[in-house]
Write a structure and sequence with these properties.
It contains eight helices and five strands; from the N terminus they run αααββαααβαβαβ. It is an alpha+beta fold. It has two domains: 67 residues; 159 residues, OmpA-like domain (60s Ribosomal Protein L30, Chain: A). A five-stranded mixed beta sheet has the order 1-2-5-3-4.
């Protein structure tokens, strides 16, 4: 005969169960009673295992806390201020977030820049050069096509080109709402007589002539652009695009530029966005 080891509580439960089973009208058999006892033993084993895991978790937590405290003491002994370290981590996290935000803003500006450049590509079909100079998007108009040498009166060919430029700008809502500046440029050859004292005067008057033509009403033969969006400036020979050392380079420097003025949010280095 084998003897089952049970706890006092289980033994008491078994005795009560047997007593109840022995009552008249109770239909429990010995096998059913033994099955119930085995079930109770199984549940107790699961409880014991769970309590063991709980004790192990608490022990691991206490050990981890002790290791953290030990590391803190070691850092303190090495002269590391934990509070400052946390502050530095917060500053680095903030700096990273600022960088990500600026990167998103840069990407949005880049997309607007690409859209603007695509709109201006129509002008390249007219033989004009669209580029970025001095942090500005620029439409370059050859001066010798617009004016005779040393003169400020627009030639017929120059007027025809300006009318086509005005049509592109006027018919595109995005371009029509931008601000532009007409910039006059010359080579470094001194003026030979004439009513202009120097190249500054000539460049200013040429820029003024282009501006006046672009903002003149269509019914008067002009470009019909909004004058509130346009201004003019003269640079003389101070901003050449090529060295003034050959006739060809001097011809390139004699030009008028239509400068697309950037909005406030676009005040960044557009060269970083321009593809070669």
């Amino acid at each position: 005969m084998s003897i089952r080891r049970t706890t006092p509580k289980l033994l008491l439960g078994a005795v009560l169960f047997a007593a109840i089973a022995g009552q008249p009208g109770c239909g429990y058999s010995e096998d059913e009673m033994q099955a119930k006892i085995r079930e109770i033993d199984g549940l107790k084993s699961q409880l014991d295992a769970e309590q063991g895991r709980n004790r192990k978790t608490k022990s691991d937590l206490e050990e981890a806390k002790a290791q953290i405290e030990q590391l803190k003491q070691q850092l303190k002994a090495a002269g590391v201020d934990i509070s400052k370290l946390n502050a530095n981590l917060e500053e680095q996290s903030k700096a990273l977030e600022d960088y990500r935000r600026r990167a998103d803003q840069l990407e949005a500006i880049k997309k607007r820049f690409e859209m603007l450049r695509e709109k201006l590509q129509a002008l390249t079909k007219l033989g004009l050069n669209v580029t970025v100079r001095n942090n500005r998007m620029v439409i370059q108009l050859p001066g010798d096509v617009l004016f005779d040498l040393g003169k400020e009166t627009l030639k017929k060919d120059g007027q025809d080109i300006l009318l086509k430029v005005a049509e592109v700008v006027r018919n595109d809502q995005g371009l029509a709402q931008r601000s532009f500046q007409v910039a006059g440029h010359t080579d470094n050859a001194p003026l030979q007589g004439g009513r202009f004292k120097d190249n500054w005067g000539l460049s200013v008057m040429r820029a003024r002539e282009v501006l006046a033509f672009l903002v003149s009403p269509n019914d008067k033969g002009g470009g019909g652009l909004n004058p509130e969006r346009w201004s003019a400036a003269g640079y003389g020979d101070t901003d050449p695009i090529k060295p003034n050392d050959t006739p060809e380079n001097k011809q390139a420097n004699r030009r008028c530029e239509l400068v697309v003025l950037p909005n406030v949010e676009e005040m960044l280095d557009l060269k970083t966005l321009a593809t070669p």
